[in-house]
Structures are given as C-alpha cells and as structure tokens.
Design brief:
Blueprint: H1 12-21, H2 30-44, H3 48-51, H4 65-77, H5 81-89, H6 92-102, H7 106-119, H8 123-130, H9 133-141, H10 148-162, H11 168-176, H12 179-191, H13 195-211, H14 213-222, E1 226-227, E2 239-240, H15 244-257, H16 261-274, H17 278-285, H18 288-305, H19 315-336, H20 349-375, H21 381-409, H22 413-422, H23 427-437, H24 442-455, H25 457-466, H26 469-472
Antiparallel strand pairs: 1-2
Main location: nucleus
Family: Belongs to the SAAL1 family.
Keywords: Nucleus
Amino acid sequence: MDRNPSPPSSDSEDEAVIAGDSIGSTVYSKHWLFNVLTKLIEIITPKKDEDSELNDEEEEMELDDDMENDICKVWDMSMDKDVALFLQEFNAPDIFMGVFARSRCPRLTEICVGILGNMACCQEVCIAISNNKNLGEMVLLRLCDSDSPTLLETSRLLLSCLSQSEVADIWVERFRESPSVYDCICFIMSSSTNVELLVKIGEVVDKLFDLDEDLMLDWIKKGSQWSVTQPVDDSPNESPVLKIVPCLLEATKQICSEKNSEGLDVYMHILQLLTTVDEGIQTIVQSPDNGKETWSLLHNLFCCELCQPDDPPIIVQEQKTLLASILSVLSAIFSSQSRQEFVKIEKNMPLIDSLIRVVRNLDECVKRSGDSLNKSKSEDPEKLEIVEEDFHLKIVKDICCELLSNMFQEMSKEHILEGLKQGHLNEEKCSCVFQNLLPLYLSSVKSFLEVLREADPTLADSLEKNFPSSKLQI
C-alpha cells in the first residue's frame, strides 16, 4: 500500500509496521520512496515503439500532477541526512543521470537537481556524488540549460560541493576541463534578469576564484580569445567570447536595480579578487570603456549609496565587507589608470569627500570599540567579537588611506580651490586625513601642503600648527 511521507497514525499495529519500513530515525517510508523512484525510472525509460521517435520529439513535456507532488515530497525529504544516505544507497544519483540525459521536462530536471543539491549537504553523500565522474560532467552541462529554475538548483548544488574541502579540488578540475562552462556562466551573468539566479551563480564564481587563482587567470585570458561554439549571422564559424568583466558589470547592474545587498557583496568581491593579479587589473582597465564603466558604477555606489552624510558612524560596521571590496577596486583602477579622463581629480572631488567621511566614521567606531574593551571586566564572546570587528575595520581604513594618499598627491592648486569652494575640503576634513595618513604617507601630506599653501596660505598655516613642522619635516 502506498504511503506518502507524512507522519504515521498513532495506531500501535501501524506503528510496528512503520518502524520496520521507516528510513533511519525518520517516519518516512522506504516502500513509498521505492515506489516514487520506480515511477521516475518508468518516466525516463522509453517504450520500444517510442524509442525511434524520441529524437524527433523535442518539444517540452509537462509533469503529471500526482508525480510532481510525489517527487516534490522527495525533494523536501532529501534535506534529512538519513533520507539522503538512503537515496545514495538506492543509487538515486544514477536515476537522476537518466533524467538529465532523457527528460524533456524542465520541471522534472529542476526537481532532480534540487534533490541532489539537498543530498550534497550531507558530507558523505557529497563525496560520493563528487567522485562520480559521469554525474559530475552532467551536472556541469546543466549550466548550459535554458531553464532558470534548473540553473538555480544547479548553482546551489555546485556551491555545496565547492564548499566541501574534501572534494572542492575535484570540481575545480572539472570546471577547467569544461570550456563551455565559461561561456554559459558569462551568458547567464550578462543576460539573466533573475536576481536569485545571478546571486547564486555569482557565489559559484566567487568560490571558484577564491579556491584557484589559476582558474581565474584562465577565465581572464579567455576574454581575448575567439570561440567557435556560438556562430553569428555574418560569421558562421566564430564569434567573440563573452568577457568576464562586462558580464560581471551587467549582473551587478541588475542586482543593484533590485537593491539586493547580498548579491552586491558577492559581485564586488569577485571584482576585488580580479584586482589581486596584474592580469585582472589589466582586463578591467585595458579597454577604456571597461575601465570607465567599472569606475563609474563603483564610484556611484560608494558616493551615492554607501555611508551617506546622514548615516550614523556605525554604518561602516554593517557595510565593511562591501566597502573593502569597492574601495580595493577603485584604488587599483586609480593607481593603474591615473591618466585616464574618468579618474582625473576634477571629476572625482565627491569621491574624496566620501573617503574622508568613511575615515571619520571609522575613527569613531574604533574609539567606541576601544571604550567597550576598556569597560570589559572579563573574557567573553562579545569581547572577541569586538576584536574581530576592529580587524575588518582596519582593512577598510588601510584601503581608504591608500586611495586618499594617491589622490592627494595628484591634486593641483585648482583642484584644491574647487574642493574648498564645493565644501569637499575644509580644515576639519584635512585634519582628519592628516591624522590618518601620517606618518605612513608623509610624502603625500607634504605634497598636498605645498600645493595648499599656494591655494589657501591661511589654511596651510593652521594645519601646520596642528601638525608641527618637525612631524611633517617640511
């Protein structure tokens, strides 16, 4: 008799039967699950008279309502470790491979990938799935699917596997050996409007780049090559490969339009990872359009969305990881493209103002953290958390100071006069900058003071009084 996986009745005789039929310590029925998987096998096994017609019938199929309800129950059940292990023992992954190979029903494919994703949350099952070469290759092929729900579940499955240190290298190598995956991922990032999918595929890319710098370099280099896999109308044999940076920017714009902070964090971190290698910086700035678009997008995010004048100083605590990523990329672009029009100081005075505001807020947060530490009488989790927060804030501060130092060193008399006129610079703001730049960036402070003396001698004198000449060595 069929039973769905709902809890059993309280009848004692039924309980005795259920006890022998239950999966592990759950109340789910082995018999019911066998029945569902058997039906699934029947769906993907063509009858003899249908086999010859299979290749001619490419239209999508709908999943029977009863079967969809049952397989969705299996999807829910598979989050349980006992069920995941039982499915693995029953060779369910092999059945799902059959679905991937034969099914013309996107909903069924989505559900089966989703079940695998749940099963992969169990370490033992994840290792078994990852060591199945054929299954691994078929999972990667799902990234070329046109169905967004299937792509989402595939990304979730891949992220689960990449997050398991025991098998992460196996998956990184599979990505290396599957050239089409790069094109598929870039296509998703550049064209999808499904923010949930964009976030998840971004997490996969972020994890891949974090795990393997060589893979990141390979993907960077692909942007300068040509592909023979996607023909265009006027060139039947080749078309330009999608470049990683423009695709990342397109995904970021879509995520920003939905105000998805989680996704923004992910994509900014990917861009930050690119700037950790020279090739990554070059792929951002080698094209004036790429560099300008990246700079403009991040500049607007930083100056118009983050750490605004009416925000409390503590806001930098909430935004610290995002701030670190954005500022790292801006700093890398400014250092490598200082002669480009879009990074000229006269076009970026609001950026200097925003940087000073962040530094000032950081000083306030550090002061508050120090006060909290002084009040702490004993070791406790809150104290450890404060120390950790200070570490992250220091990273943001270091990046801010580096970028401010480079920008101050580029400022002319005209820039300073315009900054003073617009309110981006004044004595209080300059003092804040000096306090944080000294003594590490002494040369930048000296350079700025020399130019400031030409623009506003009174302000220069006042700053020198607050920061004595012996300290500045002027």
